[in-house]
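STRUCTURE:
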C-alpha cells in the first residue's frame, strides 16, 4: 500500500493538477507541497480542507481507502468532469467581470469547485439555473 505522500501525489495527478497548482489551491508554498508528497512533512487541517474542496479524496490519502460515493469505491466515480467545471468557471468569471469584482485565483477556484460539487447530482448543466446560483455566490 502506498504511503501518505504517494497517495497525495496520486490524487493530485488524478485531479490533473501540477504541484504548484495544488499548492496554490491549498494555500501553501511549492516547497511545502513537495515535502508533503515526499512524506517529509504532514499537512495541517486547513490544507486538507482546501484539498477536499478542490475535489481531492482526503480519506484516501489518509487511510488508503476511497470515500464511499453511493456504494461505489473506485477512482473513476469521483473523477471531475473537466469541461463542466470549465464551463462553470467561465460563467463565474463572466459574472465577476460584469460586477467589476476581482477575486484571487484561489478564491475563484474554490468557488467554482463548490458550485460544481453542488451540481454533481444534476445530469445536465442547466445554464439558467447555474447562472442564478452563481449570481447568489458572487453577491454574497
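SEQUENCE:
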Amino acid at each position: 500500500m502506498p504511503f501518505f505522500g504517494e497517495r497525495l501525489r496520486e490524487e493530485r495527478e488524478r485531479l490533473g493538477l501540477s504541484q504548484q497548482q495544488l499548492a496554490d489551491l491549498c494555500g501553501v508554498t511549492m516547497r511545502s507541497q513537495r515535502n508533503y508528497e515526499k512524506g517529509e512533512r504532514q499537512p495541517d487541517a486547513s490544507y486538507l480542507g482546501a484539498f477536499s474542496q478542490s475535489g481531492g479524496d482526503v480519506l484516501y490519502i489518509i487511510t488508503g481507502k476511497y470515500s464511499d460515493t453511493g456504494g461505489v469505491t473506485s477512482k473513476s466515480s469521483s473523477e471531475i468532469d473537466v469541461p463542466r467545471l470549465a464551463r462553470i468557471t467561465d460563467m463565474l468569471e463572466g459574472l465577476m467581470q460584469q460586477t467589476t469584482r476581482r477575486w484571487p485565483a484561489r478564491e475563484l477556484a474554490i468557488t467554482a469547485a463548490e458550485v460544481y460539487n453542488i451540481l454533481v447530482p444534476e445530469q445536465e448543466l442547466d445554464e439558467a439555473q447555474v447562472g442564478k446560483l452563481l449570481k447568489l455566490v458572487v453577491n454574497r
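REMARK: The two ends are 43 Å apart (CA to CA).
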